[in-house]
Amino acid sequence: MKTNLSYKLLMVTVLSALVYWSCSKDLNDRSDSYPALTPTSIDLDAGTWKPVLLTTPGEFAVAAPVATNTPAYIAELNEIKGLQRNLSDNDKKIIQYWSAGAVLRWNEILRELVAKYNLPPYQNPDNTYPAPSAANPFAYPYFPFANPPYAARAYAYVSAAQYDALVATWHYKKLYNRAAPYKVDSLVQALVPRSDLPSYPSEDAAVAGAAVEMLKLLFPGEVAYIQQKADEQERYRIMAGANVRSEIEAGEALGKLVAQKFSARGRADRAGQAIGNPDIWKKFETDTEAKGEVCWFSLESPKRPPMLPLFSKVKGFLCDSMDIINMRPAPPPSTSSQQFKEETEEVLYYSQHPTRDRLRIVHFWADGAGTYTPAGHWDAIAADEFVKEHYSEVRWARNYALINMALMDAAIACWDAKYFYFNPRPSQSDPNIKTLTGVPNFPSYTSGHSTFSAAAATVLTHLLPDRGSKFNDMATEASMSRLYGAIHYRSDCTMGLESGRKVGERAVLRAQTDGAE
Questions:
Q1: How far apart are the C-alpha atoms of 493 and 495, rounded to whole Å?
Q2: Which of 7, 155, 169, 343 is the most buried (most CB within 10 A)?
Q3: What is the b/e burial string over 300-314, where b = at least 16 CB atoms within 10 angstroms of the residue's CB?
Q4: The whole model's pTM is what?
């Protein structure tokens, strides 16, 4: 038994490494073509935009920089010149990579981490399942299990913290109005596009400081890797002539202070209790049966505990607990109704009659174990669209914060419906139904893909209205992929889309009042 278990653990580890490598390779191959960030607007007044958690953009003090004619500053300019005289090919690749944008790159890094950790734990020899522990992230199963709700929360916290950090950074940039090193000294080369944006404190360092602080909480087993990426990013700014070291230090310190406020919120947002316990899991069954309905159960062998049944209690960014209850969709068709029978038969049809086009749709939107999840898929879609717009870093951060806060709250709303109604999966209702892409280990109603997709599409449509029909068509396709894959009933999908739109509209309301439009 020990040998068998060790072999299984080894295979899980190998699979994790392969998934991480392949995901990282795919992301890097795709993103190497991103051009250097050249904002059409520097958004100089972004220091007045409404932050998410900060009480004011100037909540954390940043000391005034020294004058650019002082020996201390001149020494920092000499550091840049020394680095630029000896740039290696690898240094040039680092500059090219990071010059695409700090927010863009950190979102990519976060998606890689989610994919690496999005692997459900293997069972113990006694057929129970271990749970990851934040207190011991290096023990199997590794913490976290970055499933869709966890991932959506991670994207939201990182994005919102980076946005607040940049609003604060812009506040001080305008206040101190220090020119970039390549404008102060003509012997400093500008290895990134020139900008009129003041350089103190460094926006890249603020983004890195916020990312490091948040990711220590969310992925504690990756601290060394995360710090390596931050060090690389900050060194790039100096090599590129965009910042002197003191600007980096000021930005990093500010980013970390802002992120500590988000970390404190994250430790108290009830996500740590979302796993529940056997008594709570059993109560979902008894409550559903008391209504005369067939309840969901795990189709895995041995049966796996339900995924984060109390995620509905997590504190969201856009919706409070009463909002979630008020947005809860009407009940699904009764499991004894004619409509339920007809919807089950429809799923059986799609299960038994796949087409090449439907299979393409199923697999494009699958986003299962070992991927960056549906939320990450929409972040990747957003990145490709935002690059075309030539946003400033602060607008990148603001737009990602809107999308990802909506995706997190969509997860909360969806998980509320799932565990309130505890509806069975189609393949549970009819064993003849064979899914085309696995069976998620949580109740059916409503569809998570549908809820996530409608929330993201609603926000993207507001940000880029000329492409609204494209985003809404994509959300509909993502929703239908779950019916084509025999994972969801039609009502799961239609009501999921409706719920997602309602959450997305909350983000749009925030966008309309945050001062950025």
A1: 6
A2: 169
A3: eeeebbbbbbbbbbb
A4: 0.94
Q: Which CATH number fits domain 30-138+145-267: 3.40.50.300, 3.40.50.360, 1.10.606.20, 3.40.1160.10?
A: 1.10.606.20
Q: Looking at residue 33, what is its pLDDT? A: 78
Rounded to 5 degrees, what are φ and ψ at 398? Answer: -60, -45
The reported pLDDT for the residue numbered 18 is: 37
Domain map of the chain by residue range? Answer: 30-138+145-267, 278-513
Q: Examine the pLDDT at 27 and tell me if it is beyond 60.
A: no
**How buried is 118 (Cβ within 10 angstroms: 0-12 exposed, 13-18 middle, 19+ buried)?**
buried
Residue bearing tokens 């087993």: 221
Q: Mean pLDDT across the stretch 196-220?
A: 98
| Mean pLDDT, rounded, of the chain | 94
Strands (E), 278-373: none
User: Cα–Cα distances in Å, from 169 out to 50, 197, 402?
Assistant: 13, 11, 19
Task: Tell me the C-alpha distance between 448 and 308, whole Å.
Answer: 13
Kindly report, residue by residue over 367-397, the tens digit of the pLDDT.
Answer: 999 999 999 999 999 999 999 999 999 999 9
Give me the pLDDT at residue 23, please.
40
Cα–Cα dist 458/54, whole Å? 26
Specify whether the CB–CB gap between 280 and 309 falls below 8 A: yes
Backbone angles phi, psi at 197, to 5 degrees: -70, 130
pLDDT-derived band at 31 (thresholds 50, 70, 90) equals low
**Rounded distance, CA 116 to CA 369, Å?**
9
Q: Is the pLDDT of residue 333 over 50?
A: yes
Separation between Cα atoms, residue 428 and residue 347, nearest integer Å: 12
Q: Which helix (H) or strand (E) holds 359?
A: helix 356-364
Q: What is the pLDDT of residues 338-347, one digit of tens each?
A: 999 999 999 9
- The matching CATH number, chosen from 2.120.10.30, 2.60.200.40, 1.10.287.180, 1.10.606.20, for 278-513 is 1.10.606.20
